[in-house]
Amino acid sequence: MKLSLVVPCYNEEAVISRFDDQVRAVLGGLAVEYELCYVDDGSADGTLPRLRELAQRHPSTTRYLSLSRNFGKEPAILAGLKAATGDAVIIMDADLQHPPELIGKMLGLHRLGHDQVIARRSRDGDKRLRTALSRFYYRAVNTWVDVELTDGVGDFRLLSRTAVDALVSLPEYNRFSKGLFSWIGFDTVTFDYRNAAREAGETKWRLSMLVNYGIDGLISFNCRPLRAAIYAGLSLASLATLYTLWVIGAAAVGGITAPGYVTLVAIIVGLGGLQMVMLGLIGEYIGRIYYESKRRPHFLVKEASATAPARPRSGG
Ligand code: UDP
Ligand code: MG
């Protein structure tokens, strides 16, 4: 059995060599055939030269792809999954936040017949605000979206060949991989581990990116937000009807008075805002259709290690 490690790297020169050493030490102790598939996601620092060095030092077990620009973590992972040749694939961050010591445990669980072995992290190394927001978000998402997302469950997981083939066969351009992992299903098992702080370098996530990622998650899987918009519109229209009837009734009984300036302004501004949100929502779905209809590849490869047997030029 052969194990592939898929490692997306964006500006990770500070930590990549240390990562490589630690992972090899662990894999060496496991007596399993393995390959490391690094994907340089258009790094602007010395990540690519480091990867070339690693590939030279360990030619039979190292492969790397370098994408033509920074496409984002999701496309980088997809590139790695497409390039991986193993019977099982583990996706790991390059910053050592995913402890390499867990590889053995994941392999063990895979050998028991599980197609997805998920490592769920505690949030010890994270900022408190981010933790709180994440918790709230997952609670909201799970009431809205068909696929189940769990807090702390990320990309760190082992996938069987079957699961990898299923994932790679999903053609959509907008990839929200947390949801895709959950969507493909298969026999899944989850275990917990303590989160480690980043070894070096810094996180690429800013709050705005997290918010955008969150919106992606909400609308990537179904049209339920549009349905919610219909319900909101219906409720508001019913309320307006009731209110009109009440005003007419009151006028018939007590004559016409004309207060309510603030009420009017509040209603106009409030409804205007709501309409914009809903238009934005519709626009968001149309935008997705637009992107999907272009059928662009997910990523472009500018350089690949010589050892790579199948040299993917682009993601289909
Ligand atoms: N990453 C990537 N492309 C990007 C951003 C991140 O390949 O555009 C990689 C990064 O090099 C790291 C992993 O994705 O290996 C996780 O990134 P990061 O540590 O910044 O995220 P966090 O752990 O804070 O969620
Ligand atoms: Mg990290």
TrEMBL record:
Q: Name one Pfam family in it.
A: Glycos_transf_2
Q: Where is the Glycosyltransferase 2-like domain?
A: 4-166
Cytoplasm keyword on record: no
Which Gene Ontology cellular component annotation is one that this UniProt entry carries? plasma membrane
- Gene3D superfamilies reported for this sequence: Spore Coat Polysaccharide Biosynthesis Protein SpsA, Chain A
Q: TM spans, by residue?
A: 228-249, 261-286
Q: Which UniProt keywords apply?
A: Membrane, Transmembrane, Transmembrane helix
The entry's family comment says: Belongs to the glycosyltransferase 2 family.
Supply the name of the protein: Membrane protein
Species of origin: Streptomyces chattanoogensis
Lineage of producing organism: Bacteria, Bacillati, Actinomycetota, Actinomycetes, Kitasatosporales
